Amino acid sequence: MATAGRPGAHPRDGIAQSCRAVRFPTRSAAGRRHRLTAGSGRCERARRGKGQVVLDDDLLRLLPREVLRERLAGLVAESCAWAVGLSDSPHHVRRHGRSVASGLTLGLRAETGLHLGDDDGRLELGDARPGSFQDALNALAPDGRRHADRFEDDVLVPFVLQTCLAAAELARERHPGAWAELLDDLGDDGSDLTEVIRTAEWETPLRIEAEHLALAALADVPLVEVEAEGLPLSLVRAAEAVTRQAAPTAEPAAPPDDDLAGALFLAEAAMQEAELTVPVPPAQAPALLGVLAAEGIEPEEVLVLLPHLPVQQDTADDVARLLAERDLR
Q1: In angstroms, what CA-CA distances link 115 with 2, 59, 118, 151?
Q2: Cα separation, 133 vs 113, whole angstroms
Q3: Rounded to whole angstroms, how far apart are CA atoms 137 and 41?
Q4: Beta-bridge partner residues of 92
Q5: pLDDT tens digit sequence for 276-309
Q6: Residues 165, 172: contact at Cβ < 8 Å?
Q7: Cβ proximity of 128 and 218 under 8 Å
Q8: First-last CA distance in the chain
Q9: Higher local confidence (pLDDT), 55 or 180
Q10: DSSP-assigned states of every residue in 141-199
């Protein structure tokens, strides 16, 4: 909560207390048998018998929530970093269907105890304390949207996607049976985790929960304190953005010439026949090299073909290393 009334208190203290006070909702016993997706069937067939573990049908649905629980501090930190600069944003009101600047900033209105939002804002944000983070989310942005819409696009959507990806990787590693059953229900081969997550509809419910958790920690905290807490991370994010913009764009691999087109065709057909994982992981680098050699593809041709084959970059590096070791023998 806010640190108002505590002389000498640092904003970090109040936000940290709010974060620790967050309580995650629990499911009732009656609600523990929801299916993973509508009509998709069970996520894991319960195995019963001596020495076997019974897995709940919604094991993989609960896993993203557990990962979100572990990443709560990161969510609050990203929310604070996103808020930096909101106090300097112009306050807008809606007149005749248009978003018009009122002449004040959000920070000036907050200092005078005036609400930043209005009666036409989101109902779930309407009871905000004046000048608070929740109040700022309900304020109009220059483009006519609410800052809450920007918060969802800029923070919640990417954060939840990364959380779901982390949960999917954990599911694949720790619960291979449940993961295989999920892929079977979805009719997916699991090569694209983002596609699996979206088909399984993990993101939307987790995004709603992430918003509730962020508000539980920050809703009543004064906007200026949220900004002060987020300033260090916002500087890091700004530096990262500059670095990304300055980084050179990798040139796409040039298509092979006619002399190598036949070798590329043979290589792809041989990989398919050998049933190698696509994209080929580093663990299968020796097998890939063996398949290509069996097709009579010369080592120098292998190096030229690698950028055009469905292999991971680490795999291509391992193949090049194996070829170099052969030359030294």
Answers
A1: 17, 43, 7, 19
A2: 13
A3: 39
A4: 101
A5: 888 888 888 888 988 888 888 888 888 888 888 9
A6: no
A7: no
A8: 68
A9: 180
A10: PTTSSBHHHHHIIIIIHHHHHHHHHHHHHHHHHH-HHHHHHHHHHHT--SS-HHHHHHH
Residue 139: what residue type?
Answer: A
Determine contact, residues 244/152, Cβ cutoff 8 Å.
no
Cis peptide before 232 (omega within 30 of 0): no
Whole-prediction pTM value?
0.61
- Say if residues 155 and 162 touch (Cβ distance below 8 Å): no
Give yes or no for a contact between 143 and 151, defined as CB atoms under 8 angstroms apart.
no
pLDDT confidence tier of residue 256, bands split at 50, 70 and 90: low
Quick check: 116 and 129 in contact, CB under 8 A? Answer: no
CA torsion sign for 47, 48, 49, 54 is positive
**Angle (nearest 5°) at CA 233 between 230 and 234:** 75
d(CA 107, CA 127): 19
